[in-house]
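Most newcomers find our protein records easier to grasp once they have seen one. Nothing more is needed to start thinking about how sequence determines fold. Here is such a record, shown just as it appears in the course material:
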Amino acid sequence: MKKIVVGITGASGTLLAVRFLENIKNYEIHLVMSESAKKVMSLETDYDINYIKGLSTYFYDDNDIAARISSGSFIFDSFVIIPCSTSTMAKIASGIADTLITRVALVALKERRKFIIVPREMPFSTIMIENMLKLSNNNVIVSPAVPGYYNKPKTMNDLINFVVSRILDLSNIENDLSKRWEHE
């Protein structure tokens, strides 16, 4: 069975992570949520931590840097941090592995595994852009949570689905969350 590791950090946008997890099919899901992510979740949503845990096969404490997913010998198909806080992005770009999420990120980099981050900020500061460039130069797919409008979104769900659909596509996970571009 394919394995995906998902990190949820303290950036705004927990809804994106939940929708992403809800639409992963036929994968073993290894989920890590930072303490900041749990706080943001309680501020932004009505989701319960148990609901989010239930969307995963395995759930890890972000302080458990010895968890099996922190080892290069643990094979996974992709690692997605959704949403990715600017703090987490800066730590990874600087090679800091002080949490399980940042440790898995550095393992993904050294093992050359598929690695996607979904920053959810605007505007981008020069430091953020430099960190994104540094990560992109190291084969990290930087996919900011920027919705498209060609599908004529009518609800917030349409906007969320567009972003999540693109992240699922980048993770090679089939989905039909959002209308695809069609032009004759």
About this structure: The longest helix spans residues 156-170. The mean pLDDT is 95. The beta strands are 2-8, 27-33, 58-61, 78-84, 114-119, 141-142.
